[in-house]
Amino acid sequence: MDLDDARVTVVGLGLIGGSLALGLQPRCRGLAGVDPDPKTIELARQAGIEVRELEPALLGADVLVLATPVRETLRLLQAFRSHPPAVALLMDVGSTKRQIVAAMEALPDHVAAVGGHPLCGKERSGFQQAEAGLFLGSQFVLTPCSRTTPEALRLAEQLVSALGASILRMAADRHDRLLAAASHLPYLLAAALMDSVAPLGKQDPALWEVVASGFLSTSRLAASDLTMMVDILATNQDMTLSALSGAQAALEQLRKLLAGGNAGQLREHLQPLQQRRMSFQDGRGSMHGA
Question: What distance in Å separates the CA atoms of residue 157 and residue 151, rounded to the nearest whole number?
Answer without folding.
Answer: 10
